[in-house]
């Protein structure tokens, strides 16, 4: 699919439509939709902004490419004055005091925010069922989950309710719902986009990530949001990725894939067959393909969940009903904290807080948390070694198709294991893009850290041959 952003931009400047009409149409679609994608609509702001864009066009003024383009925001981003609930009871009435850097850059470019989108509470989940706003239903089949945690964002894009959406990816939350709803979703290199104003889940892997219907739209939005931010010490300065550079993949000579991902018992036959047939098509184009050794799924998932739980337990400790959140009074301060947190956090979030505090506690942290950190280093080193030999690593996004709504809630361990293919790339902080091709839930394309451009180049190449 061609760039939606460019298409709409042309419609606006050639006066085939007005920005107000466009925004109103999307707001109506969002309001009527039965997929549970909406936590709150930003209708007044959106229509006010649309009027200003229309006035500029009527005056003959030039507008920027993103000016007037309607987008969605996962409900874990601060946008000043809007409800920012993280799909939780605890923050159900919390309003942001400031705006996240990534979102501010989009607003500065003139993009129009329509909606705060449903997701797993605090990013905890792989199905967007762990939310007080009702399970998000898959764009293609409402009996299936949308994936998660950025499920609302993926479905809004897939259904054309938003032109693009901004999700958050800690262990797969942009890539997996993109795969489940057959769109594009990018987890950029860690640090390329400032995390300031993205509610912290696991700070060492949290990434801001765009979801869209074309590689070109991912590129446009990525360029706007990227950059060093003094408010996030892990952010770095990067070069803009030019349009003509991503259509040229001639520097990519060798790719690799993880043997054990494909030979695992957990992979569905159709995903495996489709993946291997994609590999054959790539070889037929003269690109060398290497089989790579990697860590077993159990190791990846255990390492990720050990660190993610430890980090979320400490990040969420500030949500105690005093500094933030819906306070429930009890007989003394300690009880007030306890009741506030036990009544207002979901089961899944509490499981992670308890698990995280356990692995961080004296007597356990050496054996569990420090071991997790050591394994993360080994995983990163393994990627460093691989990327000396291959330009790109290709993998399926998930071992299977999206489950039915309700199934993941019955078995949290099975849900954690379903993240086997996404979490390794998060731990290594490398750029990884889901494209809606190659297997029923798409393919992931990864390159070495800071090589986001190469990922987009190979995505264009695959688009041409698949
Ligand atoms: N499913 C993974 C988890 O629950 C990833 C979630 C995310 O990236 N926010 O931790």
Overall pLDDT score: 97
CATH topology of the domain at 4-246: Amidase signature (AS) enzymes
Query: What class would the helix/strand composition place it in?
Result: alpha/beta
Give the CATH H-level superfamily of the domain at 4-246: Amidase signature (AS) domain
Portion in beta strands: 5-15%
Describe the sheet with the most strands.
11 strands, mixed
Provide the helix percentage. Answer: 40-55%
Please provide the count of β strands: 11
User: H/E series, N to C?
Assistant: HHEHEHEHEHEEHHEHHEHHHHEHHHEEH
The CATH architecture designation of the domain at 4-246 is Alpha-Beta Complex
- Distinct ligands, ions and cofactors found in the model: glutamine
Using the coordinates above, name the CATH class of the domain at 4-246. Answer: Alpha Beta
Question: How far do the termini sit from each other?
Answer: 13 Å
Shape: globular
Low-confidence stretches: none
Strand order of the largest sheet: 1-3-2-4-6-5-10-11-9-7-8
Number of DSSP helices? Answer: 18
Description:
The structure is a single chain. The protein is an alpha/beta fold and 466 residues long. It has a domain at 4-246: Alpha-Beta Complex (Amidase signature (AS) enzymes), CATH 3.90.1300.10. The protein contains 18 helices and eleven strands. The protein has an eleven-stranded mixed beta sheet, with helices on both faces. Glutamine is lined by residues 123-126, 149, 169-173, 201, 308, 419.
